[in-house]
Amino acid sequence: MSSSCILGQGRTALVTGASRGIGALIAGEIAKEGGHVVLTGRSAADLQAVGSGLAAAGADVSFVAADLTRPGAAERLVETVERQRGGVDLLVNNAGGDPLREFHTMTIDENLRTLQLNLVAPVALSHAVLGGMLRRGRGHIVNISAMAGRVSFPYTEVYAAAKDGVIGFTRVLRSDYRPRGVSASVLILGAIRDAGQGQRMLDESGMKASAFMAPAGSVARAVVKAVKKDRAELVIMPGPGRLMRAVMDYFPGLGPAVNRAAGASTTMQKIIEQRDARAGVSG
Ligand SMILES: NC(=O)c1ccc[n+]([C@@H]2O[C@H](COP(=O)([O-])OP(=O)(O)OC[C@H]3O[C@@H](n4cnc5c(N)ncnc54)[C@H](OP(=O)(O)O)[C@@H]3O)[C@@H](O)[C@H]2O)c1
Known about the structure:
Elements: E1 12-16, H1 21-31, E2 36-41, H2 44-56, E3 60-65, H3 73-85, E4 90-93, H4 108-136, E5 139-146, H5 157-177, E6 182-189, E7 192-193, H6 197-205, E8 214-215, H7 216-228, E9 233-236, H8 241-250, H9 254-261, H10 264-279
Parallel strand pairs: 1-2, 1-4, 2-3, 4-5, 5-6, 6-9, 7-8
Helix pairs in contact: 1-7, 3-4, 4-5
The structure holds NADP nicotinamide-adenine-dinucleotide phosphate.
């Protein structure tokens, strides 16, 4: 399968979590390749704003609002896009995030919503697009994962489980369907600056971006690279990302030590305390 079948004129990409943060940049980078991009997220107003900005820069975009934690939302979203556009050639499962509160202070339903958004929704959307992709003999699914589990980033128990799950899901999906023309890639993100949740946390805590943070624009460019070069996994962090990931796996105690040394544990504790105080939660 050639990547030129997936991007460009006459092709449609569906990007989740495109109403703000990294997803808006991913949508813009894909649009530069010339095809149509469907943006999705919960907030129609934010999708409209991102879409107008991209259209002003010459992009061919539309949006469909959807809450991916609702039962049946993934299937309805894909049906709508297939009806409007005739099919999905590229699916980018980018929507995700973490309330970043202590595991035991959240209800089990709150924890399961994190799993639903970060793992169940990408699985459901992939399942929903796959039939059409196989019929047309072309397609690519890019899933956005995170280093959270590898580095034991504080207060991300369920998020880390979901993001590691996405890596396993992508590997098997790629292996099973690539021979039939549908490929899959996973991007494993370290901390990201300039846009998205990481930048918001910096803004909230008044901290400056560290040298360990990669710019959000590099994630957007990596999505296009993953499709064009049909890459299985890309690690997005400054320096030798894949090596860092392997080292973290080999020495699981290293992540917590690095978090303590880099001040992430203390900073996160402060952020959690502020958030819990605002939400009226007691530990
Ligand atoms: N930023 C980082 O440092 C970092 C690091 C590692 C991995 N990542 C991953 O990168 C991806 C993008 O993160 P980000 O930092 O750009 O996040 P963000 O700024 O918080 O944006 C999250 C996006 O997901 C959408 N979303 C949230 N809940 C949703 C729901 N229930 N249904 C549908 N859409 C929903 C949001 O739109 P609405 O609010 O309009 O629904 C928004 O467009 C995520 O998968 C995240 O886990 C980020």
